[in-house]
Write a structure and sequence with these properties.
The protein is an alpha/beta fold. The chain has two domains: about 30 residues, no CATH class; about 325 residues, TIM Barrel, CATH 3.20.20.220. Helices cover about 40% and strands about 10% of the residues. The protein has 14 helices and eight strands. The protein has an eight-stranded parallel beta barrel, surrounded by six helices. α7 runs parallel beside α8. It is globular and about 60 Å long. Keywords: FAD, Flavoprotein, Oxidoreductase. It comes from Stenomitos frigidus ULC18. It catalyses: (6S)-5-methyl-5,6,7,8-tetrahydrofolate + NAD(+) = (6R)-5,10-methylene-5,6,7,8-tetrahydrofolate + NADH + H(+). GO terms for molecular function: FAD binding; methylenetetrahydrofolate reductase (NADH) activity.
């Protein structure tokens, strides 16, 4: 039976419309015929993308502590400037507050978060457990990624989980969403609904390999692709041209990412992130004109350039500094008469 505390949690979170689904899930048999595709409505995030709205999202990092008041207050202020807040998952292998807990607290504040699910510290049992927890809380937006090695984080002697690949995890999550199928084939009814995202790196070093990896993620069920951050337009433009040539922009929503920076020192810190490189031309430009206003000019050029690339449906801010730029960035990306997307291809 459902406990009073469980019921209170659902009511507090505003799930009056989900109560019947919840009780159905409690009483339904977990083994049997394949369950039908869930008829639950889209998440707000998915609705915005499908409607052709250019989405602005930002990433927040849970505290390395259990005190959350300052984190929630800060997140609420950020959310006032953007469309979607994404909660990262022990970023850079730093042990932090559980992202599921952080996401639920954000949800109680009226926000709809995107939750990162990092495979670095999850085997398939842990992943399924978290997915069922997300479903019970009504958290539908997820992005699946491999993550940085434990060796660079807060506990370098920890062992990386190597149980399941990103592509296989996306495929399993898609089967859970469309068929109610757990990873071992067992069926649960009704199926949970997840809006599934994946990560891709826009690189021209080996386009064929990059496109093969991207295609595999989309074939496996990723509905949106969040790109690793870029500091130059040329590479991103060339990569997206190949995406369009293969028709992949019609099968998934693409969100570019940036790290805003207000000085050369801040820019150099990003070079410490694995897989991220700073163009020498950018360093040279800032070495001659490194003022805050020049940095804003560079960021503005990058943002508007990204906005103009065909197939890019949103911008994800990997860093929230400088905080006072958020309203300006958001204003840059607001355009009237958004172009609708063919939902039959993407969903």
């Amino acid at each position: 039976m459902i406990t009073f505390n469980q019921l209170q949690t659902l009511l507090t979170a505003g799930y009056f419309s989900r109560l019947s689904t919840f009780f159905t899930a409690l009483t339904a048999g977990s083994v049997g015929q394949l369950a039908p595709v869930s008829a639950q409505p889209f998440s707000r995030f998915q609705t915005l993308l499908t409607a052709g709205h250019f989405v602005v999202s930002a990433e927040v990092t849970p505290p390395r502590h259990y005190k959350v008041d300052a984190f929630i207050t800060s997140t609420e202020k950020i959310a006032a400037c953007i469309d979607i807040v994404q909660v990262n998952d022990n970023v850079m292998a730093q042990a932090r507050l559980c992202p599921l807990v952080a996401a639920q607290l954000m949800q109680r504040s009226g926000l709809e978060p995107v939750v990162q699910l990092t495979l670095r510290h999850r085997n398939r049992i842990a992943l399924q457990s978290d997915l069922l927890g997300l479903a019970a809380l009504g958290l539908r937006n997820v992005v699946v990624l491999g993550g940085s090695s434990c060796s660079i984080g807060s506990d370098p002697t920890a062992k990386d989980a190597t149980d399941i690949s990103t592509v296989d995890a996306i495929a399993a999550l898609n089967r859970l969403t469309t068929q109610g199928q757990l990873f071992n084939g067992q069926i649960i009814t009704p199926p949970p609904t997840f809006f599934i995202g994946a990560i891709a790196t826009p690189t021209t070093l080996d386009l064929d390999a990059s496109m093969a990896q991207l295609t595999a993620k989309i074939d496996s069920g990723a509905k949106y692709i969040q790109l690793q951050a870029t500091f130059e337009l040329e590479t991103l433009e060339q990569w997206m041209a190949e995406v369009r040539a293969r028709g992949l922009h019609q099968r998934a929503h693409f969100l570019a990412s940036i790290y805003p920076f207000s000085c050369l020192k801040a820019l150099e810190r990003f070079s410490e992130i694995p897989g991220l490189s700073i163009p020498e031309s950018l360093r040279a430009r800032l070495s001659h004109h490194g003022s805050r206003s020049e940095c804003w000019k560079i960021n503005r050029e990058l943002i508007l350039g990204i906005r103009a690339i065909e197939g890019i449906r949103g911008l994800h801010l990997r860093s929230l500094q400088p905080r006072d730029w958020l309203p300006q960035i958001s204003d840059l990306l607001r355009v009237p008469n958004p172009v609708a997307v063919d939902v039959t291809a993407i969903g």
